Amino acid sequence: MALEKTFNLARQNEIPQQFTSAEMTEIKNAISQETANVNVRPYHVYSTDEQEVGVTEDGETIYEKVITGLNLTLLMTTDAFHDTGIVIQNIKQIRSCVFFRTSDGVCVSHPVTRANNNKVQYITNMAASDLNKAVVRYTKTTDE
Question: For the chain, what is the domain count?
């Protein structure tokens, strides 16, 4: 109520020069209550541990995981999917997959990827070698 009253006064450009101590306490308490359950991330932290990063339009949890230690060469192929060597248990659908070669900063974000029997597979019309890292966002068949 205190926040609503304050915002209404602000909209009308009628904020008093000074609030009483009781009014300030009421406003601070209202702000604390409003923000107590807000999960604020000032920046995104990438992790090799699986983490929840969002929700799909259908309400499914989106997970993200950084995969390191790859030694992947993307073959130029448009006729069949190939394994990347990435295995993620209970993976249902890939939402995005970006590959990196950290030695020179190459980023490959456009191969078509899919989940097949817990494996991440790709098909692409380009080639790239020595890719050693990937960031995969995906949904799962079961939320644990």
Answer: 2
